[in-house]
Amino acid sequence: MNTPDFPEDAYFDTEFGKFTTVICFDLMFKESVEALDEPGVLNVAYPTYWFDHTPFIFFATPYQQAWSMANNVNLIAADANFPPTGSLGSGIYTPNKGALVYTHNPDGRSKLLISNVPKRPDSSVRVNDLGPLKFFIDDGKVTPMEGEEKPVFKKECLTTVLKDAENLTDYRCSPTTIDHYQFKKLKKLEDDIEICDNDFCCSLSYQAESMDEDYFFGVTGQDLNFKDAFKFGTQSCFLARCDSIEGKAAVISS
User: Fold this and answer.
1) Please, which residues have CB within 8 angstroms of residue 234's CB and are 6 or more apart in sequence?
2) What is the structure's pLDDT at 125?
3) What would the mean pLDDT of 102-131 be, rounded to a whole number?
4) In whole angstroms, how far apart are CA 135 and each of 61, 93, 141, 147, 184?
5) Helix, strand or coil for residue 137?
6) Nearest to 193 by CA among 219, 220, 221, 222
7) Is a pLDDT exceeding 80 seen at residue 52?
8) CB contact at 8 A, 219 and 198
9) Considering 1, 71, 99, 239, which has the largest number of Cβ atoms within 10 A of its Cβ?
């Protein structure tokens, strides 16, 4: 990892408010949060060329939303849309609502997203006030998107399973290991769960009408080995639904 000798955060003022910027992978490091220490910074402009990884924490839009909510700032995220490298997922997020408008669709088409955003991230948000809009941008022509966007994902996306992408809509994602996670399967219709790993704990309170599907609650406080290139510390927890394969129920051991 190359880090500057003297990191310098960038800020700019607009009629809407004061912004800082974070670029791509930097969103995962503490320096991106330290940039928010500047007085009056409530908004982040975030351009990226993200690569979706599975399972768990490295899909673009869930990570963007979680970062906005965890740091109590508005986040405007603009990702590339190139499904063959798992690069897609853009949105406008605010802490109290999460995603105001977003897209995560392997169609390979550029889009313009618009939404009203509260000037103060901690303000209450009424859905009717948001006015979210989506547009396709093809060869410089802007076309309104009619109705709900219907993402088309195939059941498998791992580069370790599929051959190389042959066209622009062949979505691929990269694998991450799960051997550093602790897991607990949800079995009851209602429960309070806490799991700890390396002095990092997460709790979950839930209610369900049925438990016909397999859900797992996972947590890690361990270092993550990223593509054997470098390691970085992670503290994350998640709730995942696992599909059965050939009639066999999902099993995760830890």
Assistant:
1) 57, 180, 220, 221, 222, 223, 224
2) 67
3) 82
4) 18, 18, 10, 11, 42
5) strand
6) 219
7) yes
8) no
9) 99
